[in-house]
Queue: 3 jobs
Job 1
Amino acid sequence: MIVWREKFLAFALHFLVTLVLAAGAAALIFLIWFPDPFQNMLGGWRLFLLVTGCDLALGPLMSLVVYNSKKPRRLLVLDYTIIGTVQIVALAYGIFVMSSSRPVYIVFAKDQFEVVLASDIADKDLQAAKDPYRSRPWWQPRLIAAKGPTDPKERQELLFASFEGRDMQFQPRYYEPYESQLEQVRSHAKPIAQLLARHPESSSLVADAAKRLHLAEDSLRWLDVRHGHGFWLALIDAQTARPLAYLPIDAG
């Protein structure tokens, strides 16, 4: 006779343990790898739910199927060893996939910001870079700038590399501190009035952001932010030329 009460108790206990593991993974992913607003910008939430949803559903459901208090202890230990191993391997693989998709650099290049993921940078390009750009940051994306070469031969090499998808923002050899390009940022940053004239529907988003930042709208500027799924917009402090907020607005 099936004792459903015992089975549902095993299901609930397994679900709680899995939930704790998922919460730990969420802390790593959303506090460190995908800080606000990158979880929304890059679809981190959807990927995380896909990864953990399988673990949260399948593991406890397998408990519901296999648990039987009348089974020999040896068989129960074997069942849960197999289930736990499968769950941990699946979760570890999901975390690995998300680590490869994490944003590592926010690069000002030419006239806009580029969100560069860990998987966008080839190992050979890291080896050609100078410190401190010879690694992929693990603790939140780093704000930097990229400046193209002036040597004609290097410019030609960069042109050919761009045909392979290795544009300047994906090659750390061209990285330099963000502060070195502040004047370039200021020269390309556009006034908020221009944005509102072209996209009046974005006025509430801009007003809310200015209120959170405790700044007047006329003290802000904006630049496009290109990422793998399209464009957002960065609000720039007119004085410091640093991005203060990112908004889900495609101003193109």
Job 2
Amino acid sequence: MANVFNYINTDINKLTIDKPEKEGKIYYSNIKYDNKPLFLQTSKIQIRDYKINNKTSSIEFEIKQTNLDLYDYFIKLDNKIIKETYSNSKDWFNQEIPLEVIDDFYKRLSKPLEKDKNPTIRFKVPIIDNKIASKIYNQNKEYIQLDSIKENLDAILILHIKGIKFMKQQYICDCYITQMRVEENKKIKYEIPEECLIDFDSDNKNYDSDEDIIDKEIIELLKVEKLKKKSELISEKEKLLDKLKQLDLEIINIENINE
């Protein structure tokens, strides 16, 4: 597992730069920190824009006023590379090269500040076999595609400050994004758990089937009908009792007359 250094805790003066070795048409110097590859974690920076194609891709970021120390870090890194190249020019290139020439030939990571604007910095996204090699995640550690990220989103990067690439017309710090965490501000429309939450054991105890519901409705209707019928019978009985009383009275009257 690669060692990741937070930029706050790294000392630029402890960086070591190897003597350039020929690699094809260029010369290359490896950069190390504490004798290890320098994987550097940044603070939170904001995505400005990105360029994606099959050969070279890059993302530009804006550094806010709250973490300008990150911008200072890359200024110091650029100055370190220029100073080391100048100090070792005779050993590396068999000639003493003036500092002004070395400074002019170097393409800085840190752009000059513009008035009333936050500094910006652009980092390369490596392409291997026409595919983006960098791993990009959202704040939930879910893998996402580069083309799904949007401008103005905040991100934290893991950069590999790998070395210095010397070419005919210029030399650059070979620095690229290995991982990026993007804080997506998308809203979750539906939240559906992966696991089954249904309690099958309580199904028969707590829930009625359609047939049970229908049976209960029929029973309730029968009860209503039964009560209605009972009420009607009671009413008829009361009427009959009234008639019997009337008949009894009539019989008594007739008997009294006969006496």
Job 3
Amino acid sequence: MVARKSRRTDGAPQGAQAAVRAIRLLKSFTRVQAERTLLELSAAHGLTKTTAHRLLSALESEGLVERNPRTGSYRLGSAAIALGLEALQSHDLRVQVHRLLERLAAETGETATLEVLHEGQVLILDEIAGPHVLSASGHIGTRWPLHATSTGKVLLAIQPAAMSSLRAPLTQYTRSTITDMNALHRELERVRERGYGIVLGELEEGFNAVAVPVRDALGEVAGAVSLGGSSTRLGRRELTRLAERLLQVTASGGADAPGR
């Protein structure tokens, strides 16, 4: 009998399958699914319960996962939280852009975010909240769909390889969400022409945003900076004005931002 090769470890370095499986288990925990049972985890990753339990026990011994004493389900442990905070604080792009976000939020009164591509979505790497209440604001670590966000449109337009993560039909979040691939391609062409992306109630009704690309120390596009808020304050005209400001400030590295 030929042993079945796990598709989840294809391409892993020889002898590293256990480590890869353990890492994939860690990545199973999200804001939406903060706790998962042994059965859920083993089924999701094509593992036997015995193998999944052995891997989880190893992770638990290092504090990377822990058991909920009431339900017995697994969740991320304190060591995983500490590692995440260390990674966040040491991320070069976040360090580079953080003060810029502070100044943009102070200048505009809107929430400024830094978002990067992550596994077919955009992930909030940093965020400075403005004084206005936002219905669609997220938190650091939140993931949003590429096609329904201003940052996602920017990154799709500049890094076309990201399109491979999208599948038709595109998920519809509001009546304004672009769900047709051809329409999305036309929108991305407009983003490339003007240098910024906008959303008008496409992720959540009443929430508009604008984003521009940001570059790393080598000049490569590494993420996108956005400003977002209520459509009652941020209509198309105001978004265009903010886009011009974002392009100006990011091009200068924030040198002309207030207080610099």
